Every structure is written in C-alpha cells, then in structure tokens.
C-alpha cells in the first residue's frame, strides 16, 4: 500500500483528510501539522506521495517543498493563488500539481489527484526517442506523475519493447530524431494493436498540417508540437490514457 504524508496546519483540514483517506482505504498515511513534524516523519519512513501546504508557521516560504524533494518526493501543493512570483521561485522544484486553497472542496480535489496518481502506477508508457537528453526529460515528467516508463531509441527497439511489454497503454513517438520514423512505426503497430488496445501520441518539431494529418490517418490518436508546456503535455497524456 503506498505511503502518504499530509502536512496541514488546520485541524479541520486534517480531520477531513482522515475521513476521506479512511473511506478510500488505499493509502497508508500520516497526518502532521508542521515542518518540524514532517522532517521527523521523513527521517523515519520513506513516503511515496505527499500533500502539503506551501505556507506553514514554521516554514512560511515553501521550505517544505525542498524538504520533500530532498527525500525524492514530489508533492501536491496547496497555494493561495497562481502568480508569476510563485512560479519563478519554484521553477526548478519537483511539484506534481497545485490545489487552490480558496476552493471550498479543495480536500476532495486533493483526494481525486492522489487517487489518480495511485492509478497511474498501473499505466505503462513507451517513449520512442533517439535523443538521450530529451528522452530523459520526457521520462522525468511522466515519472513525476507515477507512470511506469519504458524507452526505445529506434523503430526496431520500440517493436521489441512492445512485444516484451504487452501492457503498454500509450506510446509517445518523437519523429524529429534520425533513427525514428513515426509514420512507418505507426503503420506497423496499427496492424497488430488497435487504438482501444494502445494509444499513440506523436511529437513534431513544428505545426505541419500535412505531416500531422498523415500521423492521424495512419492511426495516431493525437500529436503535440514542440515546444509544449508541461501543463499541455499532461493534458494530452491524461486525455489519451482515459
């Protein structure tokens, strides 16, 4: 059972979390109310998931995020508002997602996100990309949301991985690399796997309507044009794995 750490100062918020977590029954959890308590917990136990308030009395400037990142945990974070200053300060931090405090049902939203992350552990995604750097970038973003990730550097290796891992639900193909031919790969895959069995998302360097139309005609389900934002990337991933 995945371990979850909740860091919330409000007794009421912790009480609601406890009620929802007990009802869900899918997490082994601990609820704490301060940075100090979180630090003590992290020294005792290895946690997989966390939900934290960015502003705590003993850590008012989001120090809890750095603490969790130090222990290889990317948290869900409660914030007051989305603003430029916030994203500047935490640009390099590992954060799964944000929850606005003013939402009256923010605890329920946090629970839904946690349940989704838990379910993501059952989803396997294959990344086909010849660039080591870009492949690592894609894998890091996918693993941030708890997906299982496999990679391949060319068409032949991609087909081998598909045979070895029949549970792959989504393939991400980058057509801009010299050893990856998305059109050929999609055509071969769709002879054996339907869209109902596995989704295909292609990445393109630019918005070329002819090229993207070819992807879709041969059996791709969706495409993304580089440089896409992280939020757009996740929207497309979730759209296709649903």
What features would you describe in this structure?
This protein has 242 residues and is α/β, with parallel strands linked by helices. It has two domains: 3-119, Rossmann fold (3-Layer(aba) Sandwich); 122-241, 3-Layer(aba) Sandwich (Rossmann fold). The chain has ten helices and ten strands. It has helices spanning 11-24, 35-44, 63-70, 84-89, 106-120, 132-144, 155-164, 182-189, 209-218, 230-241; strands at 3-7, 28-32, 49-53, 76-79, 97-100, 124-128, 148-152, 168-174, 199-204, 222-225. The chain has a five-stranded parallel beta sheet, sandwiched between helices. A five-stranded parallel beta sheet has the order 7-6-8-9-10, with helices on both faces. Strand 9, helix 9 and strand 10 (222-225) form a beta-alpha-beta unit.
Give the key terms:
elongated, 5-stranded parallel beta sheet, 2 domains, 10 helices, 44% helix, 21% strand, Rossmann fold, 242 residues
Topology record:
Layout: E1 3-7, H1 11-24, E2 28-32, H2 35-44, E3 49-53, H3 63-70, E4 76-79, H4 84-89, E5 97-100, H5 106-120, E6 124-128, H6 132-144, E7 148-152, H7 155-164, E8 168-174, H8 182-189, E9 199-204, H9 209-218, E10 222-225, H10 230-241
Parallel strand pairs: 1-2, 1-3, 3-4, 4-5, 6-7, 6-8, 8-9, 9-10
Helix pairs in contact: 2-3
């Amino acid at each position: 059972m995945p371990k979850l750490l909740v860091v919330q100062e409000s007794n009421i918020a912790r009480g609601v979390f406890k009620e929802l977590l007990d009802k869900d029954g899918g997490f082994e959890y601990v609820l704490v109310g301060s940075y100090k308590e979180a630090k003590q917990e992290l020294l005792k136990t290895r946690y997989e998931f966390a939900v934290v308030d960015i502003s705590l009395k003993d850590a008012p400037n989001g120090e809890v995020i750095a603490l969790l990142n130090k222990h290889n945990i990317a948290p869900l974070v409660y914030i007051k508002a989305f603003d430029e200053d916030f994203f500047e300060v935490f640009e390099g931090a590992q954060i799964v997602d944000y929850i606005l405090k003013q939402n009256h049902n923010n605890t329920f939203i946090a629970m839904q996100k946690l349940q989704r992350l838990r379910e993501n552990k059952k989803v396997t995604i294959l990344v086909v990309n010849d660039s080591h750097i870009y492949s690592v970038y894609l894998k890091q973003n996918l693993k941030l949301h708890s997906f299982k990730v496999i990679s391949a550097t060319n068409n032949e290796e991609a087909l081998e991985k598909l045979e070895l891992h029949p549970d792959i639900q989504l393939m991400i193909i980058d057509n801009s690399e010299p050893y990856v031919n998305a059109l050929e790969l999609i055509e071969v895959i769709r002879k054996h796997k339907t869209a109902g069995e596995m989704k295909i998302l292609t990445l393109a360097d630019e918005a070329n309507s002819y090229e993207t139309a070819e992807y879709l005609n041969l059996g791709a389900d969706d495409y993304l044009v580089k440089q896409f934002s992280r939020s757009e990337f996740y929207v497309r991933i979730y759209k296709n794995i649903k």
